[in-house]
Design a protein that fits this description.
This protein is mostly helical. The protein has 3 helices and no strands.
């Protein structure tokens, strides 16, 4: 078998495209999952819990999920503004 640069390039491109599509599928699956199931914790919550436990080892987080329509429109806008910055 002889080395063919064109065939090597085509195979490499196919692998890169396949990996990219698998990555996109993984992200899409995560978005679908988190749109249906609320997370138990987030990285921010765990960081805050660590800081609280330095002062009080028995500290625990309490959370309560609320429907989207009960969240203030101002809070929604502030989150979008902070993400866009």
């Amino acid at each position: 078998m002889r080395f063919s640069p064109g065939r090597f390039l085509l195979r490499t491109l196919g692998i890169v495209v396949t990996l990219f599509l698998l990555y996109q599928l993984w992200i899409f699956a995560q978005v679908c999952w988190w749109s249906a199931y609320n997370p138990n914790t987030t990285a921010f919550m765990e960081a805050q819990l660590s800081a609280l436990r330095e002062k009080d080892p028995k500290a625990a987080l309490q959370q309560q999920w609320v429907p989207y329509d009960r969240i203030s429109i101002n809070l929604k806008r502030a989150i979008v503004a902070s993400e866009d910055a």
